[in-house]
Design the sequence.
């Protein structure tokens, strides 16, 4: 943090129950030279990674479906969300973490992944940066049923659907997850699969 226009004055932990919610008080020097004191809350849950598994021969992708409480609280009637496989880095580098998460969640053991970009997903309130990957999969890579870890209270359904159906599900609203939309559109724009 080396922006000369920002000076952190204090950090107060508001909650550290699941992840950490901080209240930050800082000085912000504006373009006209005046300095404002501002307060913001920032939720720190660590950084993460996500991946789109695709099969060129079958023109399919692997997605997951699971309950997401925040979506339920904000109008998603079932609370279920269709997503690309994703998870927190914990102490791993992004590539190692996404390979681990892929096997845990989908049951596919992949070796070769390609990082395509990284992005802040909700920069107004969440510190997380997300690393985006793609990888080809085949039925020979399936080593388990996936579904996540029971001790982490994960109950993940693995979906194999055609790429054209996945793209159509964005338009119908069946897929509303930002990272998933971004990776599906990346695949479409880069001709990984056909619609």
Sequence:
């Amino acid at each position: 943090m080396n922006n000369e226009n920002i000076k952190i004055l204090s950090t107060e932990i508001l909650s550290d129950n699941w992840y950490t919610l901080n209240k930050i008080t800082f000085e912000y020097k504006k373009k006209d030279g005046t300095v404002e004191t501002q307060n913001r809350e920032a939720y720190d849950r660590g950084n993460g990674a996500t991946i789109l598994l695709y099969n060129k021969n079958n023109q399919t992708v692997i997605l997951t479906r699971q309950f997401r409480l925040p979506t339920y609280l904000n109008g998603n009637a079932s609370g279920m969300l269709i997503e690309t496989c994703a998870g927190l880095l914990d102490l791993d580098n992004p590539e190692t973490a996404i390979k681990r998460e892929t096997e845990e969640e989908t049951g596919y053991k992949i070796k070769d992944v390609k990082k395509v970009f990284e992005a802040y997903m909700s920069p107004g309130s969440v510190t997380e940066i997300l690393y985006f990957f793609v990888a080809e999969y085949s039925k020979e890579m399936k080593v388990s049923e996936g579904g996540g870890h029971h001790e982490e209270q994960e109950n993940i359904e693995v979906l194999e659907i055609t790429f054209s159906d996945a793209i159509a599900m964005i338009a119908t609203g069946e897929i509303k997850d930002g990272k998933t939309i971004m990776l599906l559109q990346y695949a479409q724009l880069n001709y990984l699969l056909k619609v």
About this structure: The chain has two domains: 6-44, 48-189. The beta strands are 6-15, 20-29, 35-44, 48-55, 60-67, 80-83, 85-88, 114-120, 129-136, 157-162. The chain has a mean pLDDT of 94.
